[in-house]
Amino acid sequence: MERTLCIIKPDAIRKKVEGNIIQMILDAGFKIIALKLIRLTNERAMSFYEIHKDKPFFKGLINFMTSGPVIVIALSKENAVEDFRNLIGATDPLKANNGTIRKLFATDVQENAVHGSDSIENGIREVSFFFDESEIID
Ligand code: CMP
Q1: What's the order of all strands across the beta sheet hosting 70-77?
Q2: Could you say which of 1, 113, 115, 117 has the lowest number of CB atoms within 10 Å?
């Protein structure tokens, strides 16, 4: 089974749609193997998004991701990474397909409701960024 990391972002929690998002994830056949509600510190957010540190949107992204609680969820499924990216839709909700989580719940390209790992390697790395193996119920 492949692993992928989902983050339900502060905008989705402010809109109170985290329940809808989790239901869509379960209906799509993903298994939740770990889950927690946390508040990211500046340091943790910067470390998680380090790959984007030179992008013009980095500062805004860190401000946004630390603006309220997030729900981090480790997911397991065959082909989890690709299937989850299809479920959430394009980064920019204007480009996301109908029926995707971002089309339904995102505000804009920054406040886009959810994060999903973009490769199998990042799925493994990002799950272990937030969860010890002992916290995962596989
Ligand atoms: P995510 O999938 O979490 O990965 C990086 C995040 O940076 C992305 O979702 C958005 O929240 C944000 N992001 C990506 N591109 C842009 C952009 N052009 N402008 C603002 N924020 C962006």
Answers
A1: 31-38, 70-77, 2-8, 114-116
A2: 1
Instruction: Tell me the average pLDDT of the chain.
Output: 98
- Which burial class, exposed, middle or buried, applies to 121 when counting CB atoms under 10 A from its CB (0-12, 13-18, 19+)? exposed
For the CA of 118, the nearest atom of ligand 1: 2
CATH number at residue 36: 3.30.70.141
Closest-CA residue, ligand 1 atom 1, reads: 115
Full domain range(s) for residue 97: 2-135
- The pTM (predicted TM-score) of the whole model is 0.98
- What's the 55 CA to ligand 1 centre distance in angstroms? 10
Catalytic residue among 25, 76, 115, 131: 115
pLDDT attached to residue 74: 99
Q: What is the mean pLDDT of residues 61-81?
A: 98
Residue range 101-128: average pLDDT?
A: 98
